[in-house]
Design goal:
Blueprint (H helix, E strand, L loop, with lengths): L27 H7 L7 H13 L6 H21 L7 H14 L3 H14 L5 H12 L3 H14 L4 H9 L37 H11 L2
């Protein structure tokens, strides 16, 4: 549980949520941010826990395949329940894409990453994970164009800047796009709630390399 998002202990089924009509004191800040969809987020948390189980070195290939399928089902449960403006939806689609890559299903992964980018064009993981796959698949021109688009929307994304340099580009030459209809940013209650799980590493290039090594 220490490795899952901070809100997970307060989702349904973990004993500290309260109910939709009477949320616990710990759950209330998360309900305020996520709305009614918070009461479906236990599926996302189950998926996060099962991902840890699947990645254990002791997991058999059969166990891993079963867990990956279960994770995708749980992530999709939330995605289908959530409204299109749900603040966590881009992250959930990225999670689906990552697991689908591990399952050897790149077409499904591509669709999930594309959904994340459509919902939140400046959300850098929607670009970086798929670009990493393209790079390792020998599709460097496609990867470079995708990363360039990501930098047009989020020119300060360290991971995308390092990927673009690795692909022979110069990030400083990219003109940012004017942002339109951006989804709300995570709420900061004075002590960061750390809403989004994935943050950029201090050494972005090293982080990109680690992701690439773990991606099929």
């Amino acid at each position: 549980m220490a490795a899952v998002p901070r809100y997970c202990p307060y989702t349904q089924g973990f004993g500290r949520s309260g109910t939709p009509d009477a949320p616990s004191a710990e759950a209330k800040p998360w309900v305020a941010i996520m709305g009614r969809t918070f009461w479906d987020m236990h599926h996302y948390c189950w998926g996060k826990l099962n991902l840890q189980r699947a990645l254990r070195s002791t997991a058999t290939e059969q166990e891993r395949r079963h867990l990956f399928a279960t994770i995708v089902d749980d992530y999709w449960y939330v995605a289908r329940k959530a409204p299109r403006d749900f603040i966590m939806l881009p992250e959930i689609y990225v999670g689906i894409g990552q697991v689908e890559l591990r399952r050897g299903r790149p077409q499904e992964a591509n669709r999930a990453f594309a959904e994340a980018r459509a919902l939140k064009p400046d959300y850098w993981p929607g670009y970086s994970h798929w670009a990493e796959f393209l790079m390792h698949s020998g599709q460097k021109a496609e990867a470079k164009q995708l990363v360039r688009t990501g930098l047009e929307h989020n020119p300060e994304a360290k991971t995308l800047r390092e990927q673009y340099r690795a692909l022979g580009g110069n990030p400083s030459e990219i003109a940012p796009r004017v942002k339109e209809g951006k989804l709300p940013e995570p709420v900061d209650d004075g002590e960061s709630l750390m809403l989004f799980e994935e943050s950029e590493p201090e050494q972005a290039g090293a982080g990109a390399s680690r992701r690439g090594a773990a991606t099929p």
